[in-house]
Design brief:
The protein has about 750 residues and is mainly α. It is built from 30 helices and 7 strands. The chain is about 65% helix and about 5% strand. α1 packs across α14 and α28 packs antiparallel against α29. The protein is globular and about 95 Å long.
Length: about 750
């Protein structure tokens, strides 16, 4: 409970936040109640008691509970599906639905179902919520221009809007409604701390008091009687007549309430480092819905939008819920008179703006750019909700969630590995710059659970790689460091692959995995692998067993798809690990930014460059890292020098400082690490050739930089420039051999 160990100094934030919650809830809860077909006071009933009960049980200290979009929209969908439109019927059935939702949530808590919620993906939830919000916007839209709300699915709703518009559009109502939506959406972007819904509600009340809005044709809310709700057990007779429909719909609503509340409260919990207990929070949701059913209201949920508002004010605990409940208590007793002055278009605009804010359009755009498969799942659930209804939307969403899990498990991260001498480690050859496969070895990494759904994939890809290699293969090594588990089918595939390797005279090794995987392999009958030495703890041990010693014989580096001009082999490997295919683009962006900055400075010292390197790498760079960085920076300066707006003096000043720093570094590397320095010279030579071909207009400037570099280098070591030139001549000769069909390693 929130009172245990409560600190009194938090009252100054929790109580004002609770009062704010109450006033924000007034237009939202009334709007959803009327959307469902209930008298407006039932929206207040569905907030006052449930928010208090939730606060007493919940572990989340800052999440707001009460009337919200998802369960309200699903309730409307349920009523439409059952053909229930009369207020008397709605008053009877809705509390029973809330009661069934509470029962389902108690069941979910008893069987620890909250653990399963992690299998409902964000695209599924996003598509479902966005579909629901779109549906209810279409239902409510006619009320913006003086019409009546619609019901049904997409085609029926669009047809109803056309029919209502044909009867006549009340221009003033439409202006008030659309104006409310626009003001709320704009204010949430530019003035998020202002509870604009409350402000607009009271402004509209004031306008109704001083202007004859009703006489002008603007509909106002009905009178809301003062007084508290009476507690009563819901009428369950409808449940007895239609058990399948109400239990199925109640279960679906309960599932969405649990998923949305836990996902959203979990996000806030991670942000504020709160200790959350999901089972306890589901119990709190169940108790809140039971309380809602006892006051005759409808299913309720955690509110993401209201939580976002009050967390801007530093709320500390569920004392906020107590303050909100008490505030609504007094409003129901003494302050309901103003509600009859609220214009229906304004209230409808508040609800529609809240629905738009709850739509996951940002998620849809991100998925479209990043993961098309997830975007199609989002779109499928969204379309199903609109076209077929909420029940089918939930079913399709759950099915797609589990299909996604199966697909991802069946297509895990994997690929061939290569070796980078400067890093002394193994990296994927598909993107790691400088990663080169070891001659005579197929080195393959597999990550994820290895089971019947993906075991054939592992075998097929290894055999395909074996067939495509032009060198003679001596061994196949599987890096299983990312394999979390294995089943009996996958074990059989491994044994089959092992037998194929033996038949063709190849060695086979499984390496880098945990001892737990070894236990599973033995249990599934793979003792042969251990007995014959095919299971080794590391790649290095497997290579040694294959008679491959350092320095490893490497094949030429494979050309990567989308290969860019600038390449490196040291620090970029780490950067690729973080950014993947965008690594070199990130590098170039950083270098361009730094070069532009240097050209605006009259003077700078070496510390500025060193600090920039440290910022880029995330740590103090090695000599080799710094070598690459400086070379890229010089290339960028040579490129910028060709722009008409660039000051040649500024370029020369920056070049002189950077080249002097570069010369000092190279003179030290040539003495301390001659072999490494030779490799850097080779890399620089290849980089220079590519740059000059790509940007011939900047080639002369780059040559001028090289001339100055050699002059500065001679100041450090007079013989070093000629040594480097000799290295370059030798490398040119080697390159000619390769181009004419000779071979060099």
């Amino acid at each position: 409970m929130f009172l245990k160990g409560y600190q009194k100094e938090n009252l100054k934030k929790d109580i004002p936040a609770g009062i704010l919650v109450a006033f924000v809830a007034i237009p939202i809860s009334i709007g959803y109640a009327m959307m469902i077909g209930l008298p407006p006071e039932y929206g207040l009933y569905g907030t006052m008691l449930p928010i208090l009960v939730f606060g007493l049980f919940a572990s989340t200290p800052r999440f707001v509970f009460g009337v919200d979009a998802a369960p309200s929209v699903m309730t409307v969908g349920f009523l439409a599906t059952m053909g229930i439109h009369e207020e008397s019927e709605i008053l009877a059935i809705v509390p029973a639905l809330a009661f069934v939702v509470a029962v389902w949530l108690f069941i979910f808590r008893a069987v620890h179902l909250p653990k399963v919620i992690r299998f409902v993906s964000e695209p599924v939830m996003g598509g479902f919520i966005t579909g629901l919000c779109t549906e209810i916007i279409l239902i409510q839209f006619p009320k913006l221009f003086g019409g009546s709300p619609g019901h049904g699915t997409l085609l029926a709703l669009v047809g109803h809007i056309e029919e209502e518009a044909a009867k006549g559009v009340h221009v003033m109502s439409l202006a008030m409604g659309l104006g409310t939506v626009l003001i709320l959406l704009i204010s949430r972007k530019f003035f998020p701390r202002i509870p604009m819904a409350v402000v607009l509600m009271f402004l509209s009340v004031f306008a109704s008091m001083v202007l004859p809005l009703e006489a002008w044709g603007v509909k106002l809310l009905p009178d809301v009687p003062s007084g508290l709700p009476s507690l009563s057990i819901p009428d369950l007779s409808y449940l007895m007549d239609h058990p399948e429909e109400i239990f199925l719909n109640g279960g679906m609503i309960a599932l969405i309430i649990m998923a949305e509340t836990l996902l959203a409260s979990g996000a806030y919990g991670r942000r504020f480092d709160d200790h959350l207990e999901p089972d306890r929070d589901v119990l709190a949701c169940a108790a809140g819905n039971l309380a809602s059913s006892l006051v005759g209201a409808f299913p309720v949920n955690g509110s993401v939008s209201q939580t976002g508002i009050i967390n801007q004010f530093g709320v500390k605990s569920q004392m906020m819920s107590l303050a909100a409940s008490v505030t609504l208590f007094f409003i129901l007793l003494f302050g309901t008179g103003f509600i009859a002055y609220i214009p229906v278009p304004v209230l409808t605009g508040i609800v529609i703006a809240a629905l738009i804010s709850n739509m996951e359009l940002g998620l849809a755009c991100k998925l479209q750019n990043v993961d098309r498969a997830e975007f199609y799942i989002f779109s499928a659930v969204f379309a199903t909700v609109l076209v077929a209804g909420t029940i089918y939307g939930v079913l399709i969403g759950m099915m797609l969630s589990f299909v996604t899990i199966i697909i991802r498990a069946s297509d895990p991260p994997r690929g061939m590995l290569g070796y980078i001498p400067s890093q002394d480690d193994f990296f994927p050859v598909t993107f790691a710059s400088g990663a080169r496969e070891i001659r005579g070895i197929v080195l393959y990494r597999f990550s994820g659970a290895l089971f019947f759904g993906n075991a054939a994939l592992l075998e097929d890809e290894i055999l395909e790689a074996w067939e495509q290699r032009t060198d003679t293969i001596e061994a196949i090594i599987i890096d299983a460091s990312g394999v979390t588990s294995i089943d009996i089918t996958a074990t059989e595939y491994l044994l089959n692959l092992y037998e194929k390797c033996k038949k063709h005279g190849l060695r086979f090794y499984l390496t880098e995995h945990t001892s737990a995987l070894n236990m599973q392999l033995r249990e599934f009958g793979a003792e042969e692998l251990f007995r014959e030495g095919a299971v080794l703890p590391s790649i290095e041990r497997a290579l040694k067993a294959s008679n491959i010693e350092e320095p490893y014989p490497l094949l030429p580096e494979k050309e990567k798809e989308g290969k860019k001009l600038h390449r490196t082999q040291s620090y970029l490997t780490d950067f690729e690990w973080a950014y993947g295919a965008d690594a070199e683009e990130k590098l170039n962006e950083f270098v361009v930014m730094l070069a532009d900055r240097l050209l605006t400075m009259d003077e700078f010292d070496d510390r500025l460059i060193i600090d920039a390197e440290r910022l880029f790498f995330g740590h103090l760079p090695s000599d080799e890292d710094e070598e690459h960085f400086l070379e890229f920076l010089e290339i960028q300066l040579a490129y910028l020098a060709q722009r008409p707006e660039t000051s040649r003096e500024a370029v020369a000043r920056a070049e002189a400082r950077i080249l002097r720093l570069h010369a000092k570094l190279d003179s030290r590397l040539a003495i301390e690490h001659p072999e490494k320095f030779r490799g850097l010279v080779a890399w620089r030579l290849a980089l220079k050739k590519r740059f000059c071909l790509k940007h011939p207009e900047a080639a002369e400037r780059y040559r001028e930089e090289s001339t100055l570099y050699y002059e500065l280098l001679a100041e450090q070591d007079a013989s070093l420039p000629e040594e480097i030139r000799e290295m370059c001549r030798e490398m040119e000769e080697e390159l000619k051999l390769v181009e004419t069909g000779g071979e060099t390693r």
